[in-house]
Backbone:
């Protein structure tokens, strides 16, 4: 009877060990792995949906590629990727010529303070021009409406100090900034 | 010590049989439990394999979509460039100054006769200095009054829930200015109107910083005096936008 009882105990212990081992494997290893996989599937599905949406958008954009190219050209004219100082010179002098105004002084320089890391860079412009009040306003308006973005920070207009002198021309001076975004953005 | 089992043989056999039954039942339950657990594990394991395969499939699909997107790289680059430029352009335009409008408004606000500006100097800090000459003190007073009232008019339709406090808060205008420009005496009369004028006042402050009388012509009978003046003005952002 004693030998039989010992066998039974061993078998029972083996059963128990098997139960604990299988339970451990199921709960601690297998189920968390399965849950993790299910989570990853959800993430991947979301990512796939995002990529499919991106592809649809890109395909849609591709159908309007010519339009986008034109818009990019306009944007580049307003905000070029380089200073294009000669263009600024040409723009200012051609507007003055068109209105028959006499440019006294035009200087263009890049401010020393502009850091290489700056996303937007500025070109400083200082101008002095002679003309009648209405023509000076037209000149300013043409500069403000030009495709290249030129923002005038301050203006001064000066004229003759005699109350009776209505014929002499006025002098308009201003400081402005033209902008560009360096090519690294492209 | 001697153990003597006093139970009869039949009773002993019965107890042994019951013990065997109990043990076999216990083994059966254990056996089924272990077998059941093994079945569950195999099911879960097969699910794990299936999910792993799904992940691989999804990875392949994602890679496929990325490959298709990469074929449109030029469109992506151009669009990205356009987007970047537009962000900067909009930022610049939000602070863009319109000095041509400003000078036109200034001319409109200045009386046509008897005043001449020698210098006008204005900056985007919304301040302006003017030096000029008036042919009399009255003309200078007229200029100052004109500047104080200088405005452009915006028509506004009164809404049922409007109050003067609400309108003044939204439009940077005082109640008195509203009553004055709409020719009414009080809030009740103003709100009774269907459409009102909201004056967009040009100048916040007009200070006469210096004034000098200058002898223009001297005769025995009459002395005409020009007035040389300078003004310091704080103007509103509206004038530049």
Residues:
């Amino acid at each position: 009877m004693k030998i039989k009882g010992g066998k039974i105990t061993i078998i029972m212990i083996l059963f128990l060990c098997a139960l604990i081992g299988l339970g451990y494997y199921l709960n601690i290893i297998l189920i968390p792995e399965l849950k993790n996989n299910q989570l990853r599937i959800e993430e991947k599905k979301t990512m796939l949906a995002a990529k499919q949406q991106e592809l649809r958008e890109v395909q849609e954009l591709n159908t309007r590629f010519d339009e986008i190219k034109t818009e990019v050209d306009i944007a580049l004219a307003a905000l070029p990727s380089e200073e294009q100082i000669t263009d600024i010179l040409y723009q200012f002098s051609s507007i003055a010529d068109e209105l028959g105004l006499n440019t006294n002084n035009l200087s263009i320089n890049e401010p020393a303070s502009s850091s290489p890391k700056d996303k937007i860079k500025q070109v400083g412009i200082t101008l002095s021009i002679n003309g009648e009040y209405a023509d000076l306003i037209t000149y300013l308006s043409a500069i403000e409406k030009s495709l290249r973005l030129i923002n005038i920070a301050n203006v001064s207009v000066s004229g003759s100090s005699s109350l009776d002198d209505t014929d002499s021309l006025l002098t308009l001076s201003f400081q402005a900034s033209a902008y560009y975004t360096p090519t690294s953005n492209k | 010590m001697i153990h003597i089992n006093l139970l009869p043989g039949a009773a002993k056999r019965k107890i042994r049989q019951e013990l065997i039954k109990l043990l076999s039942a216990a083994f059966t339950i254990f056996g089924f439990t272990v077998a059941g657990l093994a079945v569950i594990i195999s099911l879960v394991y097969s699910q794990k394999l299936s999910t792993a395969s799904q992940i691989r499939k999804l990875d392949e699909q994602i890679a496929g979509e990325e490959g298709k997107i990469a074929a449109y790289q030029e469109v992506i680059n151009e669009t990205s460039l356009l987007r970047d430029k537009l962000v900067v352009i909009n930022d610049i335009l939000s602070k863009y100054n319109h000095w041509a409008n400003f000078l036109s408004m200034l001319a409109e606000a200045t009386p046509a006769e008897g005043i001449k500006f020698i210098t006008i100097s204005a900056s985007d800090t919304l301040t302006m200095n003017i030096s000029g000459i008036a042919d009399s003190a009255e003309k200078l007073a007229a200029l100052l009054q004109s500047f104080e009232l200088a405005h452009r008019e915006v028509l506004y339709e009164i809404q049922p829930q409007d109050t003067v406090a609400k309108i003044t808060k939204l439009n940077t205008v005082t109640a008195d200015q509203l009553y004055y420009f709409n020719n009414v005496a009080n809030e009740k009369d103003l709100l009774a109107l269907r459409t009102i004028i909201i004056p967009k006042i040009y100048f916040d402050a007009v200070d006469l910083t210096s004034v000098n009388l200058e002898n223009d012509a001297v005769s025995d009978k009459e002395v005409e005096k020009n007035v040389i003046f300078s003004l310091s003005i704080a103007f509103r952002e509206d004038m530049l936008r």
